[in-house]
């Protein structure tokens, strides 16, 4: 190159560096990535070492840096920056190298679903990586993120339009002006809602960087319209974004028309407890009637796994408990309906339904006598003494019978007997009968004693529990232990048959006849000797 200028132009007005860079085609619609970046960089380096000026282009002309960025040549870009290329030079359309790399290649900065079907998919990630490499290099050289091009776009707005979460996150580190509005009057937050593939991820990245500020009320309305229209499924991200939008401002969250779901109802349906709490703090209308005539309380009781914290939150606001939906059901009616289905996949589900039921009753929810009675029979079969007491205290008929003339005291003897003694005392205080007989002639005590256990360890524990319950029965009615059933079996017959030794002692102490015979002539001793628990005697 002796005697030749490194900046000498040819007949078309291009310098050697420009010729070298332009030899690489701009990638418009191809996934192909040039593998010649290294070769081009070597040639450009030689020219720069021999005095080529990287800033020879005038304003409104694309500089070498812009041309290299546009062609996704990260090594060339780095070399030009090393030799002092003006990172903020504005070329055609007032665009900098940062604008150009964000616009480079129609598909370069976002991953399309149909890439998976493309034979050259492997190049897509390479292009994206090279574009991000260039962005990093430009930002490291203090590239301005707030220069506006001829179309009114900053690099950040372009990155959002191209739906590149990675590019947005990189640009945010340089503190761009998020409030700047482009020609369409959209700022960065507004622009994110126009994205098709990753609007929530981009919006979340923006909010992680900076809250919206004074115009949060207006954006809250836009975001509310967006999540309704788009039917967003990423619950966690929606919840995260909403918490960031409203965390610092006292907004009006009562923006829905009647029979349209309000934000409170929407996030209750999403089971977003933190957002619901925040909306209630902002005076959300807990009585707003949304779609299908349902309030937030109707929706809160639908999913037992999350109903309890939602319910506790809503009930603190003293909502109207007896509003009916289009099916003429109140929240309590829905709970009764769930309870009376008769089966539960897990014990926890039943426990949660009963808790919800008690909370609504304690809060003053109205229920019909029939619903209360059905619920009392259902919970008695599950042995939930706490809920049984609650139902009786709220008006359930303590004398209600099932189809076999069983009272609730006939039905309630399940595996767990915790709370039984307290309930018997309460039941008696309320006028309940302890000696009622069902259609087979069983008293409540006999119904308890005829329940068997299957191993010796459980037998001893069960015996101690039953003995306490037996003593409670005897405290109120000493005759309850001697009443035989229709086959002549007494309580002592059943205790002997099932190996309840401690209970047998209590029954004998209170006057049970060890020589009483049933219809086939067997005494309690016969029952003990033929018991599978004979060895424990």
UniProtKB/TrEMBL annotation:
<dbReference type="InterPro" id="IPR036770">
    <property type="entry name" value="Ankyrin_rpt-contain_sf"/>
</dbReference>
<dbReference type="Pfam" id="PF13857">
    <property type="entry name" value="Ank_5"/>
</dbReference>
<dbReference type="InterPro" id="IPR002110">
    <property type="entry name" value="Ankyrin_rpt"/>
</dbReference>
<feature type="repeat" description="ANK">
    <location>
        <begin position="151"/>
        <end position="183"/>
    </location>
</feature>
<feature type="repeat" description="ANK">
    <location>
        <begin position="487"/>
        <end position="519"/>
    </location>
</feature>
<keyword id="KW-0040">ANK repeat</keyword>
<keyword id="KW-0677">Repeat</keyword>
<protein>
    <submittedName>
        <fullName>Uncharacterized protein</fullName>
    </submittedName>
</protein>
<dbReference type="Pfam" id="PF12796">
    <property type="entry name" value="Ank_2"/>
</dbReference>
